[in-house]
Amino acid sequence: KLTLDLTKPGANVSPQLYGLMTEEINHSYDGGLYAELIKNRIFKDNPNTSEAWSLIREGGAKATIQLVAANPGNVPTDQQRQAINGALTTCLRLVVDTGGGRAGIANEGYWGIPVLPNTTYNASFYIKGTDNKPFPTQPWDPKPTVAVPIIADNTAGPITVSIESNDGKTVYASGTINLVKSTFWKKYELKLTTGADVKPTSAARFVISTKRTGVYYFNLVSLFPPTYHNRPNGNRIDIMKLLADMKPRFLRFPGGNFLEGPKLTDAFPWKTTLGPLEGRPGHTGSWGYRPSDGMGLLEFLEWCEDLKMEPLLAVYAGYSLDGDHVDAGPLLKPYVDDALNEIEYVMGDIHTYWGAKRAADGHPAPFKLSYVEIGNEDGFDESGSYDGRFAQFYDGIKAKYPNLHCISTIGGKDWLGGRGKLTIRKPEVVDEHYYRDAWGMEADAAHYDNYDRNGYKVFVGEWATTEGKPTTNLNAALGDAAWMTGMERNSDLVIRSCYAPLFANVNKATSTAPKAWQWESNLIGYDALTSFGSPSYYVQKMFNSYIGNKVVPVAGVNIPTQTRPANKTDSAANKMPDPIPAMFYVATQDTNTGKLFLKVVNATGKPQQVDIDLNGAGQLSPEGTLVVIKGDKPEDTNTISDPKKIVPVISKVSGISKKFTRTFDAYSVSMLQINTL
Ligand code: AHR
Question: Where is the Alpha-L-arabinofuranosidase C-terminal domain (predicted)?
Fold first, then answer.
């Protein structure tokens, strides 16, 4: 039996309770949300090989391709000459010795190039042509023995650009550019449009080709499909729609581990993620591949703008994943200054130095920012340096922006929050992270019920029930929902929360490439062509779509219990009592509309009949709305080939009164909307 007490005003529900957390992991942006289709577009992904690129040689053409890298230092003159600028220092050289047949370069995309009917793609690239053969490599030679390349007439002329099947037999879209005679780099742009009869496929490649001999150089090769809100350099439409449906209130970015980087020199380089793509060299990522940084600081902010989310900016705080750190004091000052500049880029007006830069980048209006996170998971910093580092950042930020809230990554009492204490500055908000199996989440669903209300506020900045891979299954969704009932009931304390990781490209390993994802439990999955939400995704969407502004206290009696399954070994959960509840619930009310939202999780394999008592309710409509997410067994899940196996089912229900009975399905998460009159 559940008794909802409508006589006592409950705690306020945080209006920012549910948001998103994001970082470049599992090909979240490159090969994910960021719509660029060309993998390794500036040829820097791998210094030893032109990864994702291959040579096209047909009809007797003789040709080769080679990376040309103008690394700083003592490199051959020929290579230095091929850099476009300090960011675009590596290019691809195509040497065509015998023409007549087709010769060119092909890009495989991020596990394929998605081809859709009636679709216009924007292609662009830098190219220059010469008839000179590559110079002999003589780095010590101050005067090159070979003359500066001179454009031969045969390189100038049409260059064909196409999207075609991997065997080259079907051309889905093609066009030409007219390569002019020039020794200098020049950017060419064109549109490629597919026909109405094209069948969707990702078994396709992008090709730039010629039938003329010569030496051709390529850089910054780009191909964009239509993007969300038609933003140039924008995001994939299908994934943005999935996110928009979640109605997220904020976006925590850029990490996570991606903020920190493997070494002190690898932190998220926000400055070189700004402006034209020509100025973005990319950088060493944290998850085993090299991010292009096409998703840069302004793109994160515009993503927030598109989905009406408030940015929650994490600033690098001088601690890297290899355990190295910068001590508080003069050495840390440049890092604090850098964070202040970054904050100014986000929220400074156009009269500030960095606000003016943002305006020059096309966004004069400042973004609203109320929370800044100092670092990420600094509980792993065994030196204990975070106490001093946090204080120095806190003082610097508060001096310039007194209204900004500084989130600490340690200083609370739980998990990483418990690893280390803050003694110099008191944390206002502490970020706590939880990754556990379903048993662990359900065992600890009441985690925040008895927290001290007079200390810091809690930001659950990363959490997930880790069941099912690469996207989570129904059992995870049950664990998530149980955990969310606890956060929602305590959302006077838990002011913000966000699931992590958000995205995974679900492509499997091939004989030549590793799988696309690195983390095992993720919310939204996709390949080049389509995307889907996990059962956990639908739980997130349900919880955030149906929520009031006040918590309604609920008392439960005779709640079914469960005992710990033998294979559950989560160390934190092992300390929990056993048995634990197998049903979880929370209720909130919208005091403006009078709507009540009762969420009930039934983690048992049997339908459960529940008496519901609306104590103190006024006039009620007998009709309400029921949303149910359920499956036949806990392992049920959604996949790229079966994306809608578990989705919410919305129905009208009747028979609602001050006391009524409802049966909640086995393995289900339900939301019952009750309308007061
Ligand atoms: O969400 C995946 C990783 O988990 C994050 O990058 C890191 O902060 C945490 O350890």
Answer: 461-668
Ligand 1 atom at minimal distance to the Cα of residue 433: 9
User: Phi, psi (5° rounding) for residue 586?
Assistant: -155, 150
Which pairing describes strands 595-602 and 668-676: parallel, antiparallel, or unpaired?
antiparallel
Does an H or E element contain 386, and which? helix 386-400
Q: Which residue has the higher pLDDT, 138 or 44?
A: 44
Q: How far does the centroid of ligand 1 lie from the alpha carbon of residue 465, in Å?
A: 14
Q: How many CB atoms lie within 10 A of CB 622?
A: 12
User: Which of 260, 380, 419, 519, when mutated, tests ligand 1's pocket best, judged by the most ligand atoms within 8 Å of its CB?
Assistant: 519
- Kindly report, residue by residue over 136-188, the tens digit of the pLDDT: 444 544 444 444 444 455 788 999 999 999 999 999 999 999 999 877 899 99
Distance of CA 21 from the midpoint of ligand 1 (Å)? 10
Cα of 256 from ligand 1 centre, angstroms: 5
Which ligand 1 atom is the nearest neighbour of the CA of 376? 8
Tell me 367's DSSP state: P
Picking from 167-176, 415-424, 511-520, which range would have the lowest pLDDT averaged per residue?
415-424
The residue whose CA has the least distance to atom 2 of ligand 1 is 501
CA nearest ligand 1 atom 5, residue: 256
Altogether, the residues listed in the chain come to a count of 677
Q: Which residues of 524-556 are buried (b: 16+ CB within 10 A; e: fewer)?
A: bbbbbbebbbbbbbbbbbbbbebbbebbbbbee
ipTM, two decimals: 0.99
Residues pairing with 660 in the sheet: 612
- How many angstroms is it from 221 CA to the middle of ligand 1? 32
Q: How do residues 327-369 score in pLDDT, each as one tens digit? A: 999 999 999 999 999 999 999 999 999 999 999 999 999 999 9
Q: What is the pLDDT of residue 131?
A: 52
Distance 519 CA to ligand 1 centre (A): 9
| SS3 state of residue 222 | strand
pLDDT at 133 over 70: no
Distance, in Å, from the CA atom of 241 to the CA atom of 574, rounded to the nearest integer, reads: 39
- Please report the domains of the chain, with CATH numbers, ordered by start residue: 2-9+553-676 (2.60.40.1180), 19-30+231-545 (3.20.20.80), 53-224 (2.60.120.260)
- CA of residue 243 to ligand 1 center, whole Å: 20
- pLDDT for residue 300 is more than 60: yes
For residues 291 and 350, is the Cβ–Cβ distance under 8 A? Answer: no
Q: Which residues contact 242 (CB under 8 A, 6 or more apart)?
A: 524, 531, 533, 537
From the alpha carbon of 377, which atom of ligand 1 is closest?
A: 8
Q: What pLDDT is recorded for position 573? A: 57
CA distance 533 to 530: 11
Under a CB-based contact definition with an 8 Å cutoff, are residues 601 and 630 in contact? no
Q: List residues bridging with 188 in a β-sheet.
A: 125
Q: Under a CB-based contact definition with an 8 Å cutoff, are residues 209 and 159 in contact?
A: yes
Nearest CA to 375 out of 308, 420, 345, 435 is that of: 420
Question: What are the two backbone dihedrals, phi and then psi, of residue 54, each rounded to the nearest 5 degrees?
Answer: -140, 165
Task: From the CA of 258, give the closest atom in ligand 1.
Answer: 6
Give the position, in ligand 1's atom list, of the atom nearest the Cα of 21.
1
Output the CA 111–ligand 1 centroid distance in Å: 24
Output the ligand 1 site: residues, CB below 6 A: 23, 25, 255-257, 376-377, 462, 500-501, 519
Do 441 and 477 meet the contact criterion of CB atoms below 8 Å apart?
no
DSSP 283-350: ---SSSS-----S-HHHHHHHHHHTT-EEEEEE--SB-TTS-B--SSTTTHHHHHHHHHHHHHHH--T
Q: Ligand 1 mean position to 257 CA, how many Å?
A: 6
